[in-house]
Amino acid sequence: MAERIYTIPVNEVFEEKDGCPICRLRDILEERSLEYVLGPAMMEDDVRSATNKTGFCKEHFFMMTERRSRLPLALILETHLDEVKKNIKNKSYRPDKKEIKSGNVEKKSCYVCDRIDWAKQRMYATIAKLYSEEMDFRELLRGQSEICFTHYRELHAFSAPLVSSRWRREFEKDVDALTLKSLETIRDDVHHFTKMFDYRNSGENADFKNSRDSIERAINYMTTRMPGGK
Length: 230
Known about the structure:
With about 230 residues, the protein is mostly helical. The protein has helices at about 10-15, 20-40, 45-55, 60-65, 70-90, 95-100, 110-135, 135-140, 150-160, 165-195, 215-225. The protein has eleven helices and no strands. The radius of gyration is 22 Å and the shape is globular. The protein starts with 7 loop residues before the first helix and ends in a 7-residue tail after the last helix.
């Protein structure tokens, strides 16, 4: 398979076979984004201006608090809070009629999410190009252990339309097959877990098989995140 600079990150995450490859890609992009925003970029005027205006989602705020150095986060928060204060005073944070009508007034913007989404869009285009042109990559995709529900939808939305017409139907079938394979396994494990609470299956020799962590794996499959962590 011909390697080009822009294909290397995609090939690397697909060379692994444990879990959803797009989750692995998201984790890499997320780690790099957090390192960037809490590193020297924190002191760059354009970055600080952007983080002041955009802020961060709950998930990424929590991830930043787990970093060893808390001073960069404190400095970011200080000027972000100043921006929030300014916008409350000038009433620009008040919900508009559309938000009030929909009942959705939560501020969901996030500097890290925006960076990840920007990079992922380009990675989805690369996935489509590789699948269209490289037989080896098609085999890499088919050899994955799973694709989670969230990234199943994103692959259909952002990669499938860019795959060449010759291979598009095969791409969609491969993505569906991988997602269903993991769904069926997780669903069977959850079902087995529920059966173990029947008194007829309890006792010292109760065999939970692979179901003890089935709740966590099901949540990870549906949301891309394990409860209590990444």
